Amino acid sequence: MTNEHKKDDATCPAAEKKTESVTEFSVERADEYVKRFAPSVVQKYRHTYHAMPPVGWMNDPNGFCYALGKYHLFFQFHPYSSVWGPMHWGHFTTKDFIRWHWEGVALAPDKEYDKDGCYSGSAVEKDGKMYLFYTAVKGDIQTQALAVSSDGVHFKKQGVILSGEKLPADCSRHDFRDPYVFLKDGVYYMLCGSQAKDKDGQILLFRSKDCLAWEFAGKLIKDGKPTRGIYECPCAFTADGKDVIMASPQGYLTEDWRYENTVSAVYFTGKIDFEKGAFAREYEDETDGGFNFYAPQVAAIPDGRTVMAAWMLPGCIESPAADDGWKCAMILPRELRLQNGRLMQSPVREIEAYRKNAVRYENVTIGERTVLNGVGGVKTELIFELEPGDAERAGVRLFESENNYAAVYYSKKDGKIVFDRSATGLNLYCDQNEKDAAYRSVKTEEKNGAITLRVFLDVSCCEVFVNGGERAMTAVVYTKENGEGISFFAEGGNAKLRSLELYDICVE
């Protein structure tokens, strides 16, 4: 749940007149609005293999799961505007995490206890039914509520199942949200983001035998650092014998190259003691080192994979698509694993079924600007092994036109992969106090004298995977001039492409 971008939905050209009644919003009204106005959404900057709203605003992934024989992805949804507003739940299903089928609106803020929004949460299958857990907001009070479905599409609200009365005295009733529910050893557990009254962020654990009656079990995360605000959208999974907790804190201070965004996404490894409600933390790191990544949520897949969805939030970038009738998307879902105690991320393997028109090169020397025949596009997968040689910087320019581009390069001196949006020709800043919105970087090391990058472009976004997924970077990219060029460059010396593969990603 986030309200970073809250604005009046009257900014939508087609927004209907607001009233103050509890029944102002409904699933039926929202579905009708989507049906009516989705065909008028401007397609120019829309993605082809990323989940995005049919119309209106999208943020946090919710209820990402396999249930009732399907993969489900719900999300925070404001259908009536392309800016943040009263939260509904939109709903997709998918067979392969690439093609997304619109199932309609699952929840609307139509009850007294959730009249100010149905915020982020999760889903599980129980007794042949689908249970949705979400944060119900009324005024400044946040409670956890339940909705149940027999068909996985139509949901009946069951009311509030967990309120602030179950919280310890030092926990805020006003920042208590984003329930993530999972089953372990016959017991249901719920993680909730919270913060103490001193603004110290924390992650709370609750337990239940039936998903209806919940008891407080303990605090898994409590930093003792008021500079780290509420941990939004927590989730958890197990890999390589370790428990992994993911969350999105507000207010993290920048540490070297980490946590440069206003809001971050982090993961912790260690061991959860479910009986005592405690977490023995071993390691902490940033989940994604790019500009536009927030609120990751994981799903356990029947084939044994752990797959992650996340919100590709817009940030402060000037958007040529601001008036196109839609905003935001999800990342390309990623497979997660631990390697030497660190998180590794790879795009879901299903994306490879959509590769077309392969182009390959080997042992190409690159200089100030090197253009290769057949290498270009904005619906593209690019895999290359870069040998930096004596170059100070070497990498690739993307979305390139005559005057504008975005760049991803390796800085040999710094040992960093840098994502550079400074040459897009657009304003990247909200105000003068905004953190640097032109550059993001992640630490890495050469492997056998080279860096391997796997890059996905989808019209107006880019995702980069470094050295087999040891680091990931997500970016929304617009340029003043629409460019589809891709070129390679080296500064201060020559570099070499040991190998290059390019594929068109064809979903349409």
Describe this structure in words.
The chain is an all-beta fold and 508 residues long. It has two domains: 9-347, 5 Propeller (Tachylectin-2, Chain A); 352-505, Jelly Rolls. The chain is built from one helix and 33 strands. The chain has one helix spanning 27-37; strands spanning 56-67, 70-78, 88-94, 101-107, 118-126, 129-138, 141-149, 156-162, 171-184, 187-196, 201-208, 215-222, 231-239, 242-249, 266-273, 278-286, 294-300, 306-312, 326-327, 329-330, 334-339, 342-347, 355-366, 379-387, 393-400, 406-411, 416-420, 439-443, 451-458, 461-466, 471-476, 485-491, 495-505. The strands form seven sheets. It has a six-stranded antiparallel β-sheet, with no helix packed on it. The longest helix is centred in the first third of the chain and has 11 residues, at 27-37. The chain starts with 26 loop residues before the first helix and ends with a strand.
